[in-house]
């Protein structure tokens, strides 16, 4: 009888682990932390747009106060961002116009000999659009897919120096009348790979 009870407990524990996403071996990347956009950067002493992975920045400084997400090896992203709000203009501290965002993952190529990181590849793996509430918060649980429907490859980069780029972006909503799909726009914030030294 005790053996049957033990087997039942082990079975329930295993089911709970599977429901929670396993032991972490199914994760391609984990993100914890965020970087807000600054519209301009210096290039040779001249201000230029702070373009990342071929994506233009938002027109004013934006921030994201926290971000946690995981990307599975099957290409699904699950996460939550907080405080995607303007850090400038008269609309400071608000979400202004955006009511939805899209999360885009960009992989890196393998580094060249002697280099720490490779080039950011221009192919975006996008989530479905998700709602942005009045406090700039959003939750995402969605497959990431490129324009062909493909998921991110397993060799998308690493969590050391050759890190992929994950951007939180504006989105032009889909138009059901014309059939035009949702279109990702400027980036507001970026996710940061989870530190291996977190307590």
Q: What does the model show?
A:
- This protein is mainly beta and 199 residues long.
- It has one domain: Immunoglobulin-like (Sandwich), CATH 2.60.40.
- Helix content is 9%, strand content 40%.
- The chain is built from one helix and 13 strands; from the N terminus they run H-E-E-E-E-E-E-E-E-E-E-E-E-E.
- The strands form three sheets. Strands 1, 5, 6, 8, 9, 10, 11, 12 and 13 form a nine-stranded antiparallel beta sheet that branches. A two-stranded antiparallel ribbon has the order 2-3.
- The radius of gyration is 19 Å and the shape is globular.
- It starts with a helix and ends in a 6-residue tail after the last strand.
- The N terminus is likely disordered.
Ordered list of secondary-structure elements with their pairings:
Blueprint: H1 2-19, E1 27-36, E2 40-43, E3 46-49, E4 62-63, E5 66-72, E6 76-82, E7 85-86, E8 100-108, E9 120-126, E10 130-131, E11 138-143, E12 165-172, E13 183-193
Antiparallel strand pairs: 1-5, 1-13, 2-3, 4-7, 5-6, 6-11, 8-9, 8-10, 8-12, 12-13
